[in-house]
Amino acid sequence: MLLLPLLSLSALWGFVLNLTVSDGWSLLRGDSLHQTVGVTSTELGVELQAERERSLLKLTDGEPSAELGEQRARTDTAVDAFREAVMRAEDDLADDMRAPLNTVQAELSRLHAIRSGIDGGFSTRMLGLNEYNRLLDAMFRFYDHLAPAPELTIYQQVTALQTMSNAHEFLLREHALVRAAQLDGRLIEPEAAAFTEYASSRKFLHARGLAGLDVELRQPYEELFKSQTFLTFATMEARVIRSGAPPPDGGSWNDNTGKVITELERINGLAAEELGGRAAGAVTATRVQIGVAGGVGLVAVLASIIISVRFGRRLGAELAGLRSAAVELSEQRLPDLVRRLSRGEEVDVAQAARPIQVSGSAEISDVAGAFGAVQATAVRAAVGQAALRRGLGQVFLNLARRKQGLLHRQLSVLDGMQRRTHDPDQLEELFRLDHLTTRMRRHAESLIILSGSAPGRAWRKPVPVIDVVRAAIAEVEDYTRVDVAGMHGSAVDGSAAADLTHLIAELVENATIYSPPDTTVHVRGDRVSNGYSVEVEDRGLGLQPEEYDAYNRVLTEPPEFDLADSDRLGLFVVAKLAQRHAIKVLLRRSPFGGTTAIVFVPDRLVTDQQELPPAKNDGLPSLPGRTRKKALAVVSGTHAGLPRRVRQATLSSRLKDGQPPEPEPERKNERSPDEVRDLFSAFQRGTQRAREEADEEGEA
């Protein structure tokens, strides 16, 4: 019995040794990268920021500058040093660093073309600024992969400090743009918008980075942000945003902003030194752990080897038999049982839970018996779970089907009431009831989807994407907050149109619920190389990166629906619908702080149509009657299906021949307001009846 404790001790120390050695190797590799690629990339970023500012001045006054030429020479020297450092550190680069590093190399290769555009006068000030910003953005993305830390707390501080550095970059962009604008005394509209965006990003990143720093590292930043110099800068910054013009006192701006930039660079340097000292202490502790773990682990390993020689043969044979039985149970029998249950097959519990047959010592027999008991319990639990899931699925399905029938009847009643009602106020109330009923129908369809069945709505012909999006928005409570951008003239297969409508409606509703009520949810779409992409973007608070990862895993591989996780019911519905048609759904943080949901429809479900065929009524030919009316009520106007106007086709013969028009006869017996209202109500009823009859003919 002495063998098992020694084996456990050996395994434990082996794990500790492996962990500490791994940490030590990571630290050594990180230090090597910092001394080569890290230092040179930082110097290159500083030179690129300086060249950007001087290039904007050149684009404004058009005069060649010796300072610009000298700065470009310094930048070229920094580029050569960076590339040489990358070649030396090739073996130390981790796999996750290679992609952002390749992006930096590709952007640096465009530097000559950027300069040529500036010198040749083919580049505007805003275009030149964006070109340098794009290059520096690639540098900062590479920095994010170049900051290893031995401890979680140090890593968090490094990440927060990196955020403060990103905020500093946006401050430099503001300063460069204003300095150039001071030469001609104006900011054009794109430049004013860019300045506002830079200021907002700087404020957000400063607040985010400040929240992540501990008290010691945060204090210098807080003191600077409370200083009169920074408050003066913030006041001038706000004035530029309001007026859309550079500050009238350019010297004051340059003086205050220069002081803020210098002080931030000093504080960033001190914070980096402090974190370097902390990391050095952690490295020393890791080295001590390696030494202790190596010595003690060596003793434990030697003891276990000596004892294992005596008992190894006998235990090896017994453990091999137990291992084979356990592997068969875990890799074959139980997975096969779960697959059969998921397909709805009947399972014989006694046959599936047959005991494990092994021979050997009492300990091995006891373990085999325990495995058998666990197996029997697992089989019974799996069978019970499958039966319960099937029962709940049937309950969901029956309730949803009944609810669907009632809702269809309710929609028919509302339809009849709308036909008979002439009062606009009553029509508005009926429309609200119709809208609520449509949302209830979508919730009933969600229950059907969660039960594993299909809702049953489908069309024979392709449905335009714009109509699918409009129909989805019509099923959302706060549809008035949704803004739809222009979309490419494509259509989706009719068999998937209803499910895609439901999917987009769930995402749009989620965006309206989890964003402030005074903000707008933006929906846009476009044809891509291998399908169609629809984006839903809100202005909410967004999620943490780990939450995005968790939700995207559910959307990629939807698990069985868990009744205890009903808060994410819409997420499961979206995942099931996406899986049914091989649609990809991705959630990610929006640049404005909210969440962007990207829906990618595969090419096999998308057809291109350059111009939709003209409709007889309302320009939505592919939707059924009720969906068409809802879409028209939500989004006025359409891009297709409207008749084309022919110039002067309705002119009288006298006007066409150039003769003056006949005098208009004197009007008599003007209609009263009540008569006009009745006339338009009759016209509305006739138009609505004609549309519904056309819909019924089209669906038949």
TrEMBL record:
Q: What is its EC number?
A: 2.7.13.3
Q: Which residues form the Histidine kinase/HSP90-like ATPase domain?
A: 495-605
Top enzyme class, one word, equals: transferase
Catalysis: reaction(s) = ATP + protein L-histidine = ADP + protein N-phospho-L-histidine
- Which ranges are annotated Basic and acidic residues under compositional bias? 654-676
Q: Where is this region: Disordered?
A: 637-676
Q: Which domain of life is it from?
A: Bacteria
Q: Which UniProt keywords apply?
A: Kinase, Phosphoprotein, Transferase
Q: Which PANTHER family match?
A: SENSOR HISTIDINE KINASE TRCS (PTHR45436:SF5), SENSOR HISTIDINE KINASE YKOH (PTHR45436)
What's the protein here called? Answer: histidine kinase
Which species does this protein come from? Nonomuraea harbinensis
